[in-house]
Specification:
single chain; mainly beta; L,D-transpeptidase catalytic domain-like; 8-stranded mixed β-sheet; two-stranded parallel sheet; about 5% helix; about 45% strand; L,D-TPase catalytic domain-containing protein; LD_TPept_cat_dom; cell shape; peptidoglycan L,D-transpeptidase activity
């Protein structure tokens, strides 16, 4: 019997890409912004801890809070920052793309941040 594939998010800081997998199958890849050199996005293994619709302001239309307090994957009110090192450590996405991601993952989904 094969194990049931599991959703996971991989964030690649160097290429500023967020990838959504189901098992080993890539479902989607999105450009993202990561932390500035002074406030880098922390490398490690985390999980989605909270999901909030319409958190407002700089967080855009969705917030996926990580198990690392004060960090998350969120939309933005500065879409021109996507693809750059612009944040205080969070992962920024275009609002329409973070909305698509939000609908495909749940609390507990693994989030792996790599160089």
């Amino acid at each position: 019997m094969n194990p049931i594939p599991q959703r996971k998010i991989i964030i690649r800081r160097s290429s500023r890409q967020l990838e959504l997998y189901d098992g080993n199958r890539l479902l989607a890849s999105y450009p993202c912004a990561v932390g500035k050199n002074a406030t880098p996005t922390p490398i490690g293994s985390y999980a989605v801890a909270t999901k909030i619709m319409n958190p407002g302001g700089a967080f855009g239309s969705r917030w996926l809070g990580l198990s690392l307090p004060d960090y998350g994957i969120h939309g933005t009110n500065k879409p021109s920052s996507i693809g750059t090192q612009a944040s205080l450590g969070c992962i920024r996405m275009h609002n329409h793309q973070v909305e698509a991601l939000y609908n495909q993952v749940g609390v507990g989904t693994p989030v792996i941040i790599t160089e």
